[in-house]
């Protein structure tokens, strides 16, 4: 019996955040159940017992433990299975800097990048046109975010310090979405950000997972 079930969806950035964490931790003892968001399967009564807001990802264990919110899931899995992706508990300052980097990612980056992904990617599947005003406003915020990141990454290798952590993983799915939507320049035009991005996606486990997903998407015509 697998250690837990991950409920997610193909092409979901929030699900991919969890899958990347598991890949980086080398953990394969789990079952992935894919819900069809276009059919609204995430809003079923059964799924709302797992996630009261009817969203993915969620993990459930055979012992009855359920957890939603991708970053909380990643942190829980990294702690439970000792993936070397978190600062040591005893290093209080490193733990605080990790929390700071996590808040920065969620509030200053993922918020505007998520708006772009919704307008330019998700809306395509809903048959709706993007709202260009929302996209340009969000793009301005993303550019401003990376201007600051560019300065910070001159003095450290990763977002929370000199070690690769979960926070770096948190960025990957939405940055990939920016590339897919034609906004990869926000990364490649900034030397330090671009070098950081290369360090992240050239990690063997991450590179393997991204390549396999790309191949699967091409085969499925997505
Ligand atoms: N903050 C949540 C976001 C979850 C979320 O919005 N998931 C999307 C898929 S990427 C979803 O379930 N969308 C369908 C819906 O809202 O009905 C997390 O990090 O897990």
Automatic annotation (TrEMBL):
What InterPro entries would the database entry show? Glutathione-S-Trfase_C-like, Glutathione-S-Trfase_C_sf, Glutathione_S-Trfase, Glutathione_S-Trfase_N, GST_C, Thioredoxin-like_sf
- MF terms in GO: glutathione binding; glutathione transferase activity
What are the annotated GO cellular component locations?
Answer: cytoplasm
Please state the Enzyme Commission number of this protein: 2.5.1.18
What the record says about family reads: Belongs to the GST superfamily.
Is Transferase given among the entry's keywords?
A: yes
Q: Which Gene3D superfamilies match?
A: 1.20.1050.10, Glutaredoxin (3.40.30.10)
SUPFAM superfamilies from the xrefs? GST C-terminal domain-like, Thioredoxin-like
Q: What is the enzyme's main class?
A: transferase
Q: Which residues cross the membrane?
A: none
Entry protein name: glutathione transferase
PROSITE patterns xrefs? GST_CTER (PS50405), GST_NTER (PS50404)
Q: Name one GO biological process term.
A: glutathione metabolic process
GST N-terminal domain residues: 2-85
Tell me the gene name: GSTF1
Q: Which reaction does it catalyse?
A: RX + glutathione = an S-substituted glutathione + a halide anion + H(+)
Q: Which residues form the GST C-terminal domain?
A: 91-220
Tell me which UniProt keywords the record has, alphabetically: Transferase
């Amino acid at each position: 019996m697998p250690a837990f079930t991950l409920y997610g969806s193909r092409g979901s950035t929030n699900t991919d955040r969890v899958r990347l964490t598991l890949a980086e931790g080398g953990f394969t003892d789990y079952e992935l159940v894919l819900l069809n968001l276009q059919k609204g399967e995430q809003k079923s009564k059964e799924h709302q017992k797992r996630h009261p807001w009817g969203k993915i990802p969620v993990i459930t264990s055979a012992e009855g433990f359920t957890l939603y919110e991708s970053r909380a899931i990643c942190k829980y899995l990294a702690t439970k299975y000792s993936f070397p992706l978190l600062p040591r508990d005893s290093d209080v300052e490193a733990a605080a800097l990790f929390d700071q980097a996590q808040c920065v990612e969620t509030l200053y980056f993922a918020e505007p990048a998520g708006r772009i992904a919704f307008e330019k990617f998700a809306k395509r599947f809903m048959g709706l046109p993007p709202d260009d005003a929302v996209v340009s406003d969000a793009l301005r915020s993303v550019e401003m975010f990376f201007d600051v990141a560019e300065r910070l990454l001159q003095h450290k290798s990763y977002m929370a310090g000199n070690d690769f952590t979960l926070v770096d993983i948190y960025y990957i799915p939405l940055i990939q979405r920016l590339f897919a939507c034609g906004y990869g320049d926000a990364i490649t035009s900034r030397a330090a950000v671009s070098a950081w991005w290369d360090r992240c996606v050239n990690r063997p486990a991450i590179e393997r997972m991204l390549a396999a997903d790309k191949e699967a998407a091409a085969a499925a015509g997505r």
